[in-house]
Amino acid sequence: MVALKLQDVGARYGKTEVFDGITTDWLKGGELTALIGPNAAGKSTLFKRIAGLLKGSGVVQVEDVREGFRPICYMPQDTGANAVLTVYESILLSAKQGTGWRVAEHDLREIDRLLSALHISDLAFRDLGALSGGQRQLVAIAQALVRRPEVLLMDEPTSALDLFRQIEVLQFMKRLAAQDRIAVLIALHDLNHALRYCSNTMVIAGGELIASGPTLEVVTPELLRSVYRVDARIECCTLGRPLVIVDGTA
User: Any residues with CB less than 8 A from the CB of 40 and at least 6 apart, and which?
Assistant: First the structure.
C-alpha cells in the first residue's frame, strides 16, 4: 500500500520562500486526508511542491508504488480546460500522457466507468467550453483519476459544485480511496466536510504546519479560535456525526 511522507519540506517562488520545515508522519493509502487553513495559507503551494511543480528544500517520499500506477497526480483548482476538446477527448488525452498514443480497449472502458461513476456520461461529447464551472470540475476529477495515481492531490475539488454534487463527489472519493488503496489529499474550506469524510487532517497557516493527525483530534475549538479566529463548538448531530457550530468571531 502506498505511503507519502514529507520531511522538512519547503517551497519558494523565485527567491521568495513561502514555507519551510513541513514534516509529516506517513500518510497511507486507503484514506482521505483534508488539508485545511485560511485563505492564502499556502495550501495550493504545498500541493504544487509535493507534485514537483515547485522547487524547495526537504524531501517528498512516496513508497510502495504499484506497477502501472503513477506516483503523484495534482488536480489544481483552476483546471484551465481546453475548450477545443470534447469531454471524452480531454479525459483520453489525460490517460495517454506519458504512455504513448496507442489507445487500447481498456482505456475506453476506464473512461466510460469514470464518466458513469461521476454521473457525467451525458456530457461525454460536449465541448469543454460549453460546460458550467461545476461540470468542468467534475471532468477535471475524471482527468485526474484516469491517470491511476497512487497519491492524488485535489485542490478544492468541490468549490464550484452545488451541495448535492459536493456530497456525491466526497462519498465517491472516500469509496475509491478505500477500494483502490490510494492516498487522497483534499484541500477543503468546509470543515464539516473534513469532519465527515476525512480520516486525517493537516492544518496549514502562515506558512507553517500547525497540526496533523486524526481529524477529530485536530479540529478542536482551540484550533478554530487560533487559526480561523472564530468561537466554535464541535457537536454531534442526531446521526452521530460531528459538526462545527460557530457562535461568533473571536
Answer: none
Q: What three-state secondary structure class fits 102?
A: coil
Prediction pTM value: 0.91
Calculate the dihedral angle through the C-alpha atoms of 221, 225, 230, 235, rounding to the nearest 10 degrees.
0
pLDDT digits (tens, 9 = 90+) for 1-58: 899 999 999 998 888 888 889 999 999 999 999 999 999 889 999 999 999 999 899 9
| Residue 75 near residue 153, CB atoms below 8 Å | yes
Q: Which CATH architecture has domain 3-219?
A: 3-Layer(aba) Sandwich (3.40)
Domain boundaries along the sequence of the chain: 3-219, 220-250
Q: How much is the average pLDDT of 206-233? A: 94
Coil, helix or strand for 168? helix
Q: Are 249 and 230 in contact (CB under 8 A)?
A: yes
